[in-house]
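Practice set, problem 2.
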Amino acid sequence: MKLKYEKRFEKLTTTRKERRTEFNKSNIIAAAKKQFDKNGIAQTTVDDIAKEADYSKATLYAYFKSKEEIYHHIVFESMKELKNRIQNITVSTENFEHCFYSLCNTLADFHDENPLYFDSIVGKISVKESDFEEQPVLLEIYNIGEEINSELVSLLQRAEKDGILQSGMEPVTTVMSLWASLYGIILLASRKEGYMEEKLGITKETYMKAAYQMLYKSVIKE
């Protein structure tokens, strides 16, 4: 009876520790995101994050090895949100054209909401086991990126089966090309918005809509 009680107490204690750990890590991540958004990633220091979270540096380092690791956790959370949005579209939308444009707009919205982390979508990712062991969150980022790509590949495969795509288009390569194209379109629209309005007489939204249409026509049968 005593042993059973001790095991139950040990389990409750472990659960409390896990909750406290998650609570503290969440606070640190939230504080880091606030500082990154305010001052920029490069300009933010570990001291800034610790002060914002109201923790000592020692407490912060008990949960994260570096500022970069905290940044990677924010990237992971952002990519989880993006994955959920993409899945909601691909699951609920049967029409490929509507689905395509919804995905384009979703990615643009993601950029507007997370400009500091948008580069992580097509940025360099680690595939080394040693990096995954040192920072497990890098493996989580890699895996969720693969899940997003798999979702988009499945979408293209369905479109190919329905006879919508041009013949001979390899889904995986096409997904990578679409990522690169959309990334460029969205960044250009953001950085050249003033130029487009003053010199070209068009809004950012008009440019993006036209660019999406060109991209769509490049993959479907005429």
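Problem 2, part (b): a different protein.
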Amino acid sequence: MDAFLVLAKSAKGAACAQLILDALSAPGVFVFGELVESANVKELASSDKYRGHFHLLRLFAYGTFSEYADSEQLPELNQQQMNKLRQLSIVSLSKSSKVLPYVQLQQELHISNIRELEDLIIDAIYLDIIEGKLDQKGMCLRVENAMGRDLKPGETQHLLQVLTDWTETSEKILALIDSELEAVTKSDADFSASKALYEKNLESAKVDANKASARSAFHDGEGYDRMDQEGASGRGFAAKKAVRGKSRKQ
């Protein structure tokens, strides 16, 4: 396309009209928006003789084959140009649906033969115009991806509005996510603090329980010692009394 843009700077009238036809036939050229905006090309719109060439170029930029077929004031296309416009039309159709029935494609592209339609689609896939698969059993084309086409006049503002709405929605979603993350973080912090307090109280309770157990064991041991001492004293007194009794008898 760069070569055609350079030539368009100096081509006027018939030369510019022929330049358009050459660009439409050029292999690998599928985007024409810049050429449409070229000053010399725009001049053709006011020419009675070459106005059709200008409108034909606009169809290749963002129109469809069905629009071409419905018009009687556009230059005749050769087979290569017809195939290119049909393939670009498939791109436009895939914007509204990723599953395109053969019946719909035949109607939009004005093709009666299914084999011819499938060959056209296969060429479009090889040219990277679309990515998809032919579903011969389901009689449809399943589009996975497609190249971008130029925007129609007035669509730029609509696209900007769509992007603005998308940005605002994204910002709201991100704000909501941030709020949820903040709540989760606070909840985790509260849980960690509660867990730490619980573990501290549990450890303190264990220490108190150990101290109480130690005191209880100490008191129990002291009681046994006293009983042993008292028992020993009693036995000693009884022994002394018995000795005294024997002495008196003697």
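Answer key, part (b): The first strand starts at residue 99 and ends at 101. Residues 2-153 form one domain.
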